[in-house]
Design brief:
By secondary structure, the protein is mainly α. The protein has 13 helices and two strands.
Length: 324
């Protein structure tokens, strides 16, 4: 099993090490100390910016899919009421088929909301694997993919605020300041939890319709709102400081990206959409068509025949029979 995951993560570990190498070399060429912890910290931040920039199209796909999920919630509730109490296999199969038809009609799927997170996880585990190998590779004088043996040694011994970047709250190394590692790790874990919690909270408080907020799907999301930060917080005690920096910067990117979307492209019918309409009205601007606004149906939109003026009907002369 270990070899299987190593094979999957191999290209991601190579890419992570390559990006760290590129940013570290670039920062070194502009005069920063190659062994300084802040040089490596900025290289990690550069790694985050590249990965998140690549994922921007996926993020907008996620927005579209999430709004499709919100729009179909009333229909999902009707479908659940229709098959309530029916546990036979035929009814369950029909319900699944009708539900998949709704997903197709609204252009969404239940996994779309998790897509950016799922794509980021291989990079997260790849960086964790690279950092986990730093100490042993440094002692053995080995390289790690694109990082040379000298760079691995520099990374292993680099510090910020007297704490090694490769140290974790529960795994300090010789010569490390345990107080500095504990304080910095706890502050980074709290920042990681706070940014993740606030990002999801602002979506629920400002960027969702009342129907979506009262749906069973959203009740599950509200549970995850409090569960996921706790899970990441508990896991964070084993994360190296460099990995905590990566995850916190990732959350800050998500927070800023989400703030922009809520302010400029809110969900139709949400509080943020009403606030956007008020701001545009104060400036005398026309109402903006929002991403995810349902198109007007043929019943709502007058047809061309109704809109175009009717042509006058020409009466054809009636042929009369001639008398013999």
């Amino acid at each position: 099993m270990g070899n299987f995951f190593d094979a999957i993560l191999f290209p991601f570990k190579w890419l992570v090490s390559a990006l760290l190498w590129v940013f570290h070399e670039g920062l070194t060429k502009i005069g920063m100390d190659p062994a300084n912890g802040w040089t490596w910290t900025l290289a990690i931040i550069g790694l985050v910016l590249v990965i998140r920039a690549i994922l921007i199209p996926v993020f907008f796909y996620q927005i579209k899919a999430q709004r499709g999920m919100q729009a179909m919630q009333p229909e999902i509730m009707k479908l659940q009421a229709k098959y309530k109490g029916k546990t036979d296999q035929i009814s369950r199969q029909r319900m699944a088929e009708e539900q998949m038809a709704l997903y197709k009609e609204h252009g969404t799927n239940p996994f779309a909301a998790c897509l950016p997170l799922l794509i980021q996880m291989p990079f997260f585990f790849a960086l964790f694997n690279v950092l986990h190998s730093v100490s042993s590779a440094s002692q053995a004088g080995q390289s790690i993919f694109m990082l040379s043996a000298d760079q691995v040694h520099q990374f292993d011994k680099s510090q910020i605020f007297n704490a090694f970047l490769s140290s974790a709250l529960l795994h300090t190394q010789e010569g490390d300041s345990k107080v500095a590692v504990w304080v910095l790790s706890i502050l980074m874990i709290l920042a990681m939890i706070a940014t993740q919690f606030y990002t999801q909270k602002q979506i629920m408080s400002k960027n969702m319709t009342e129907e979506a907020l009262n749906s069973p799907f959203m009740k599950q999301q509200q549970v995850l709102l409090y569960v996921l930060p706790v899970v990441f917080g508990v896991g964070g005690i084993n994360f190296p400081i460099a990995l905590l920096i990566y995850w916190t910067v990732t959350n800050l990117w998500t927070l800023g990206q989400q703030w922009y979307v809520i302010r400029r492209m809110p969900t139709p019918g949400s509080q943020a959409a009403r606030e956007l309409a008020e701001r545009r009205a104060r400036k005398g601007l026309p109402e903006k068509v929002l991403l995810g606004t349902p198109k007007k149906t043929s019943e709502e939109t007058p047809s061309e025949d109704v809109l175009s003026p009717q042509k006058p009907v020409r009466n054809q002369p009636v042929r009369r029979k001639r008398s013999k």
